[in-house]
Amino acid sequence: MKILLTGSAGFIGMHTAKALLERGDTVIGFDNFNDYYDPTLKEKRNEMLENYDNFTLIRGDLKDKGALEKAFDALGSGKDTRVCHLAAQAGVRHSIENPDIFMTDNIEGFANIIELCKDREVGGLIYASSSSVYGDSDVSPLSEEQNTDAQASLYGMTKKANELQASVYHSLYGLPCTGLRFFTVYGPWGRPDMALYLFTNWIVHGETMKIFGEGKMRRDFTYIDDIVSGVVASLDKNYPLEIFNLGGDKTEELMDYVKIIEECLGKEGEKSFLPMQPGDVVQTSANVNKARKMLGYDPKTQIQDGVPRFIEWYKEYYNIK
Fold first, then answer.
1. pLDDT (tens digit per residue) in 289-312
2. Edge-to-edge strand order for the sheet containing 177-182?
3. Domains along the sequence of the chain with CATH
4. N or C: which end of the chain has fewer CB within 10 A?
């Protein structure tokens, strides 16, 4: 296939692009390398992709229609073309502090992408949604069939808006659209604003760990390789209109996660237990039965194996002995 992958220098984007390139697909990467976190990390990820002959990068912003049109020109049209839209402003807390960029990047940007998918007759659109669309639900595990009208964060609201627009475009224009609700993705080359990266940084540098929710939060942590398998399967299946949970299929205590990090580093971190932050939720737990049945999704990596792989990468990346 020929795939336009937005957010190609991002955490999930880079790993997905790499998997597609290694199996022989042509990938056009699109990224603006913004400074929400250290752009150097994004440039390093992109350097790995540039080693592949079947990869082309177009630097641009989702709000720049001219840059997007250039990317879609490179993609072309037809049944063997796909858009894998992973670029977005991410982070629940970030959305509370910066609502304007979430509205423009996640809603206006998505609108630009899906409109071009329709105009250029692209074979299918696969896009990143989020477990945040479920809000602070007391249902466990979370399944795709349940109501998602009560958002707890602006970030979750923007992802819900994407799902609604995709449904409308499929209904009006027949565009195949698959939304993927990611659950707390972690692993090597991860985002520095995510818990695993933050906890590791604090412990390594002898700083106090900020543990919100008094340490009582529970999460369905999903290793990056498992997420990539679900994204690739979605691109291949290209269902007319679907939403899938992509989670780790096991809900973990946050403090168990912290304990594994400490064990890997051989050092116990000083902890400050703080109340829940606005927009955050107590628990996420993914029912992945639908993805298992329709995508062949089978998450295999538990935190006991995945966290040490991240720590190994972290030490190498920062040259820590």
1. 999 999 999 999 999 999 999 999
2. 55-59, 26-31, 2-6, 81-85, 125-130, 177-182, 241-246
3. 2-186+222-249+285-299 (3.40.50.720)
4. C
